[in-house]
Amino acid sequence: MILKGKVAVVTGGRGGIGRAICDRFEREGATVYAADLDVSGSLGLPEGSARFLKLDVTSEDNVRAVMDQVDSEQERLDILVNAAGIEIEKTIEDTSLEEWNQSFAVNVTGTFLTSKYALPLMRKAAQGATSASIINFGSYDGLIADPGLAAYCATKGAVHALTRAMACDHGPEGIRVNAICPGYVDTPMLQSFFTGDGSGGGGQSIDQLQKAVRDVHPMRTYGTPEDIANLVNWLASDEARYASGQLWVLDGGLSAQVQQMRL
């Protein structure tokens, strides 16, 4: 139980990846708050064992109130996971200004706000040999690009840069900051990609699209939320005390290959 005694907040904590992270943290002994828009989340499942906090990451007042509640109940925060995010499947030509702004509001400004108001609580936790840990969610799409995901790619590139800047600013305070960069992961967002009109469309059946996505990976599969939770769990722990300012790509080798040589 490498997180025993630690306090964690996971935004998007009722979604596919967020819920897996909350479950793993609890098994490792942490006190976990799942912060999301509603208790059932994107999976439409009943509330899990993690404590639920209603959170709109785009609302500064809501973020401040959530962190105040954690402070009043726990008086510290050891781990913040910024997993809340949205994806719009469009080119920039087809993306409205409202959609563009909403993408940045959730994926980038949400990460900024939750981190900003978590920092005073995390300084309380980052004492002595113990470090506090912020784990942001970027994407391999912030390093390379899938077609038809222009706004999403732009937001994830911004999260990557913000992660490095935060690591530089707050490392001296004992606060580590890293970003997870997943590739294809079996979540409601991925299933929406398969059924959508954007880059996941093309007239193929869902079975054909799923097989094509699996086959393009060197490992011939895409990831699960539990795969992501495993890496997040390590970054959250004191075992990762020297890990900060990094972009941790977890994509089954997808971005390692020369694309025209897919065989």
Q: Which tags fit this structure?
A:
single chain; 263 residues; alpha/beta; Rossmann fold; 7-stranded parallel β-sheet; 7 strands; 14% strand; SDR family oxidoreductase
Give a short synopsis of this structure.
This is SDR family oxidoreductase. 41% of the residues lie in helices and 14% in strands.
3D structure, described in words:
Helix 4 (150-170) links the parallel strand 5 and strand 6 (175-182). With 263 residues, the protein is an alpha/beta fold. The chain has a 7-stranded parallel sheet with strand order 3-2-1-4-5-6-7, sandwiched between helices. 41% of the residues lie in helices and 14% in strands. It has one domain: Rossmann fold. The longest helix has 29 residues, at 97-125.
Strands of the largest sheet, in order across it? Answer: 3-2-1-4-5-6-7
Name the helicity range: 40-55%
Strand content: 5-15%
Following the backbone from N to C, one meets helices and strands in this order, namely: EHEEHEHEHEHHHE
Could you give a short account of the major beta sheet?
A: 7 strands, parallel
The first-level CATH class is given as Alpha Beta
CATH hierarchy: architecture:
3-Layer(aba) Sandwich
How many helical stretches? Answer: 7
* Low-pLDDT regions: none
Q: Indicate the CATH topology.
A: Rossmann fold
What overall geometry do the principal axes of the alpha carbons give?
A: globular
Average pLDDT works out at 90
Whole-number total of structural domains: 1
How many strands in all?
7
Distance between the termini: 42 Å
Q: Please identify which CATH superfamily we are dealing with.
A: NAD(P)-binding Rossmann-like Domain
Query: How would you classify the helix and strand content by structural class?
Result: alpha/beta
InterPro entries: NAD(P)-bd_dom_sf (IPR036291), Sc_DH/Rdtase_CS (IPR020904), SDR_fam (IPR002347)
Family: Belongs to the short-chain dehydrogenases/reductases (SDR) family.
Pfam families: adh_short_C2 (PF13561)
Organism: Roseovarius phycicola
